[in-house]
Every structure is written in structure tokens, then in C-alpha cells.
Amino acid sequence: MDDRVRDSGRPAHSSNMVAHNTPPLNEHEGLLEIRDVAKTYSGSGGEKVVFESINFRVSRGELVALVGPSGSGKSTLLRLILGQERPSRGELLLDGESLGYPDIRRGIVPQHYGLFPHLTVIENIILGDRLDCGWLDWRKNYRRLRERADEFLEAADLAAHRDRYPYQLSGGEQQRAAVMQALLKDPAIVLMDEPFGALDPGTRERMQVFLLKLWEERKKTILFVTHDLEEAVFLAPRIIALSPYNWQTNTIGTSRIVYDKTVRDRWRALSTESKKDPRFTETIEQIRDIAFEPDRKRQVGDFDDRHLSEFDTAGAEETRGGG
Description:
Elements: H1 3-8, E1 30-43, E2 46-59, E3 63-67, H2 74-82, E4 89-94, E5 97-98, E6 106-109, H3 121-125, H4 127-132, H5 135-155, H6 171-184, E7 189-193, H7 201-218, E8 221-225, H8 229-235, E9 238-246, E10 251-262, H9 278-306, H10 316-319
Parallel strand pairs: 3-8, 3-9, 6-7, 7-8
Antiparallel strand pairs: 1-2, 1-4, 4-5, 9-10
């Protein structure tokens, strides 16, 4: 049997869906490297092991989407990379250096707008530079910093809103400003944590197109965390999926990488029209089947076990993974 299939725990017929043994990268290509990272939380109820061994690399200039069902450890892994938490075991490296506390090498765009309400758009954009400078340096470089910030606002189509406050902007405009705020410091990697999750569907699609065009122009390294498979497949040439489901034992346990694959450059266009391509839907279904679907079936089965005769939500064969 193919090693990749054996490692994944999936049946042999699913080998075309699993490729989580990422090929070795030249040391100069790898920007972010996650080596044998484990994370365990201890509490009054005992220990909870989120994941025991996570390994992958992100190359310079890559846009990678990290997906997985709720509880799979996506946000935990993002906090480890950002430096908000420390791993229980393993190493996280950026340009070959161990990652510690948050610093300017890692930009972050959160789900909820990371703008200060009492500052104007341009004041929010240059806030990082303001905090890094002493008063004399700030006065000396103020004009240059404002001009650079104006270039970023122009790229985000926000130049007309530079002196407005966040409450005067739409949700999409606020998130565009937050993206530019993260990019202005020129971080080595930008971490995006469900950045469009709070937006309405129309605004969300426009933001996806905006981010994709911005990435193709600037080629910043981006790790994009989302639970939305359509968003992940539309945006990212490469998808990494975490799942706590163990196909070998049909149980929920610690999370691991079950899918790590380049999925794009086959249909992509800088337009949501590419979502109509059959290969787009096929890719989503493949990832859902291996990373998301088992968890849904388990939840349906657990619900039926608790409510034996009240609801007929699904047949036993379907909920137990058959059919």
C-alpha cells in the first residue's frame, strides 16, 4: 500500500485525496517551518491533547489556507505561530529562527476588525510605525510615513476615507484597512484568522477577490485560517486540513494533518466565476469527505443515540459511515 495512504488511515481508494507528507523544501525556500509540534492543555478535568505531531513548511510567497472542523486546533496552531502560546513540544521556525513572543515579523488580521475606534483610518494604518518610533524620529519621518500609508490606502481603494473613523466605514472597508495595517510593517508572514467571517456574503466575496489580487501583486506569505471550504479553495493554491477523526478506529482523538495539497492553477481566475468550474466543487467535496464529513456523521449519530425515537434524522448505515 502507498505510504501516504497508510499514514493517513484512509482506505486505499482515497489515495488521490491524501498527500500530507509534504516534499522536502530547499532550506532557502522554507519561510515558516513547523517541526513535530504538540500542544496539550492541563486542567481540573485532566489533560486535553489538541495535537501530538504537526509538521509542515510554508514557502516564501505562498498563500496557504488552513482548514478543519471546529475543535481541530486551527486557532491553537495560529496562536502558536503568532507567539501568543508556546508549544508543549516541537519547534516553530521563521527564516530558520525559533519563534518566541509576537513581533513585527508576524502580521495578524483578526476576524473582528482590529481598528481603534478613536483613530482615523490613516492613524490606524500607521499606528505600528508610531509605536516603534521615539518622539523625535516620529516628527522627522512623519511625512514619509504618511505618504507610504497613502500608497497602501490607494491600493485598497480607501484613499477617500483616510480621515474617517472606523464607525463611518462599512465592514468590508474596515477589513481592507485592517489588511493594510498588517501589511504596512512588511511582516515576513501575514496570519489571517477567519478575517471575513463576520461579513455578509456579498461583501465576503468582494474581499476574497481583493485579497487574491493583492496577493498576486505583492506575493506576501499568507497563512489564511478559515472553516469555509469554498473560501479556502477559491483563495489558496495550497490547502492544509486538520482533523481529529481517526479513520482506523472510527473515533475522535487528537488532530493531525489529513490533507496537504496544491489544488489550484487548474481553474483559477481573479473572479468568483471560477467557482462554477466542476473541478472547484470536486476539490471541496474531496476535502470535506476526508476532514469534515466524518465529524458531521458522528454528531448526527450521537444525536440519534440521545433521541432514539423523537427524530429520524438519518439511517444507521449513513451515520456510522456506510452508504
